Amino acid sequence: RRKKERKKEEERRKKEEGRRKKSGCVSHQQQTLTFNLLVNIDRSQCLIVCSIGK
Q1: Rounded Cα–Cα distance for residues 24 and 17 (Å)
Q2: Which of 8, 13, 18, 33 has the lowest tally of Cβ within 10 angstroms?
Q3: For residues 24 and 10, what is the distance between their CA atoms, to the nearest angstrom?
């Protein structure tokens, strides 16, 4: 029983993390050009995460 509950909790956590990362992607794309250099690295990682998350 406990193992099943743990698996459910892990799945729930992964889904929540995925949602957070997806919403993060949107905000990255809306960043201003002044942050472009800093964000570019994050954005490329974020887009990869997004494509996996969909």
Answers
A1: 10
A2: 33
A3: 21
Per the CB < 8 A criterion, the answer to whether 26 and 50 are in contact is: no
Residue type, 9: E
Q: What is the DSSP letter of 54?
A: -
Decide if pLDDT at 7 tops 50: yes
Section 8-22 average pLDDT: 75
Domain span at 30: 2-53
Number of other residues whose CB lies within 10 A of the CB of residue 22: 14
In the chain, the amino acid numbered 6 is R
The structural domain count of the chain equals 1
Banded model confidence at residue 3, pLDDT cuts 50, 70, 90: confident
